[in-house]
Each structure stands twice: as structure tokens, then as C-alpha cells.
Amino acid sequence: MRAQIGMTVLLTTHYMEEADELCDRVGLMHQGRLQAVGTPGELKRQHGPDATLEDVFRAYAGAALSVNETEQEGLRNVRQARSRR
């Protein structure tokens, strides 16, 4: 959009699938600090051939996230509900 009409759109989201689909460049923040910046493809390639943007986020913020089986199931349910829209 910036190249076509000289405009940048800033999108904030907690949904990594949404960011992956809609954004040309992504900045990942954790605890108020910018942890990574790049295209979704660049960030994913840095973390492996099958990495998702969710995997990238977890690499930067996951140490502070305690995910037990119950929480993991909850995260899975949120993703499923989001993908049904």
C-alpha cells in the first residue's frame, strides 16, 4: 500500500494467523519491547522450514508463557473458533 499510494497501515493483533495473512512486515513485541521485525516469511524461515508465525512468537515470548495441558487445550479451542469465522 505504501508503494502504491504512499500510505502505511498499522495493524495490531494477537492473532498470528491474521498477521501472517495481512501484513507485509511484522514486529513482535513482548513485555513492551520489540523482539523481532521482518516479513512473515523471513521470521518463519529463521525458525525452521515448517515454522508458523505462532511458533516465531513463542520463540520470543514463550519462555514467559506457562502452557500446561489445560491451557494448551484452551489455546487450541481459541484457534479453532477463530478459523471458523
Report on this model:
It is a single chain. The protein is of the alpha+beta class and 85 residues long. It has one domain. It has helices at residues 2-5, 16-22, 40-45, 53-61, 69-83; strands at 26-30, 33-38. The protein has a two-stranded antiparallel sheet with strand order 1-2. It is globular and about 40 Å long. The model has no long low-confidence stretch (mean pLDDT 81).
Question: What are the main properties of this structure?
Answer:
single chain, alpha+beta, two-stranded antiparallel sheet
SSE topology:
Blueprint: H1 2-5, H2 16-22, E1 26-30, E2 33-38, H3 40-45, H4 53-61, H5 69-83
Antiparallel strand pairs: 1-2
Give the gist of this structure.
48% of the residues lie in helices and 13% in strands. By secondary structure, the protein is an alpha+beta fold. It starts with a helix and ends with a helix.
**Residues in β-strands, percent:** 5-15%
Count of beta strands: 2
- How many domains in all? 1
Shape: globular
Q: What is the alpha-carbon Rg in Å?
A: 14 Å
- First-residue to last-residue Cα separation: 26 Å
What low-confidence regions span 5 or more consecutive residues with pLDDT below 50?
none
